[in-house]
Write a structure and sequence with these properties.
CATH superfamily of the largest domain: Iron/manganese superoxide dismutase, C-terminal domain
CATH class of the largest domain: Alpha Beta
Number of strands: 3
CATH architecture of the largest domain: 3-Layer(bab) Sandwich
Number of helices: 8
Strand order of the largest sheet: 2-1-3
Helix content: 40-55%
Largest sheet: 3 strands, antiparallel
Low-confidence stretches: none
Mean pLDDT: 97
Distance between the termini: 26 Å
Structural class: mainly alpha
Order of helices and strands: HHHHHEEEHHH
Strand content: 5-15%
């Protein structure tokens, strides 16, 4: 069963002025689509062709012979997760989620600062993540296609810091992009739902 590019959970212009439709059209319509297409080619006719995406990631992680499969499967998963991490109606975390954030980081402002530091300090391409690790909220960063799932961690939220995620709108200003996402576009309901899952 071939994988399909999932539709964005909002219109391409829904995140403007913070992320442009132009960026989403390239990022989703070209980059994400290419990962899906490449994954389908790599697994076609093989034992992984009928597996779920998370199972493919699990089987390919750490296998030197399956690096291409891992990269494309993980990037397919990462991007779908990223689109859902964003919302044009960001708002604020629920009281219960705010409590968890305060317990883990001291305050919402401290969480944003620590998350931004992780995202900005990720050398080269990669991702910053809010995760649940042994029942506690934590922040991690991963390079290239790597993701918490490959390390036994539960992803709750992510920001893509590959240059194609922000360069058309922010050029080389990764800190401004990350700060804008944290201040204007976090899908707090998605985080809460992931915590409950």
């Amino acid at each position: 069963m071939a994988f399909e590019l999932p539709a964005l959970p909002y219109a391409a212009n829904a995140l403007e002025p913070y992320i442009s439709a132009n960026t989403l059209n390239f990022h989703h319509g070209k980059h994400h689509a290419a990962y899906v297409a490449n994954l389908n080619k790599l697994i076609e006719g093989g034992p992984l062709a009928s597996k779920a995406l998370v199972d493919i990631i699990g089987k390919a992680a750490g296998d030197a012979d399956k690096v291409g499969i891992f990269n494309n499967a993980a990037q397919t998963w990462n991007h779908t997760f990223f689109w859902n991490s964003l919302s044009p109606k960001s708002g604020a975390p629920s009281a219960a989620l705010a409590e968890r954030i305060d317990a883990a980081f001291g305050s919402l402002a401290a969480f944003k600062e620590q998350f931004k530091q992780a995202a900005v300090s990720q050398f080269g391409s990669g991702w910053a993540w809010l995760i649940e690790d042994n029942g506690k909220l934590a922040i991690m960063k991963t390079g290239n296609a790597d993701l918490p799932l490959a390390h036994g961690k539960k992803a709750l939220f992510t920001v893509d810091v590959w240059e194609h995620a922000y360069y058309l709108d922010y050029q080389n200003r990764r800190p401004d992009f990350v700060q804008t996402v944290l201040d204007r576009l976090v899908n707090w309901d998605f985080i809460a739902a992931n915590l409950k899952a």
